[in-house]
Amino acid sequence: MVTAVRWTAWQIPGWREDERLRTFYKNAFHPELINDIDGWKGGATDGSEHARRLRASLEYLLEQQPADVGTWQSMTRYAFHSEGELYGYLLALYEFFYGDRREPPVAPD
């Protein structure tokens, strides 16, 4: 019998090496803080190693879409209603940090 390996946040690139990356996901997505996500943009784009890891982690999450909503909630404490909502928000966040989006995304209710 083959048992599937369940995805965990430890598979995100940079997760093991960068405590700031783990802190970002834990705090930026906190239910009481998620709509203040624009405050994290400076650290996401400052050219530091952390900023490179954060960008790589978002790219990984968007390309692989490995987390379900339950795993995401365990990782960040924020409950999205569906994977579509989760990855739609992450795409909007990525576009705000690194693309042409001018306004930060608003978390769904």
Q: Which residues sit in consecutive blocks of at least 5 with pLDDT less than 50? A: none
What's the total count of β strands? Answer: 0
Shape verdict: globular
Strand content: under 5%
- Give the H and E element order: HHHHH
Averaged pLDDT? 94
Radius of gyration: 14 Å
Q: Helix and strand layout, with pairings?
A:
Layout: H1 19-28, H2 41-44, H3 49-64, H4 69-76, H5 83-98
Helix pairs in contact: 3-5
How would you characterize the overall build of this protein?
The protein has 109 residues and is mainly alpha-helical. Helices cover 50% and strands 0% of the residues. The chain contains 5 helices and no strands. α3 (49-64) runs antiparallel to α5.
Properties at a glance:
mainly alpha; 5 helices; globular
Q: Would you kindly provide a brief summary of this structure?
A:
The protein has 109 residues and is mainly α.
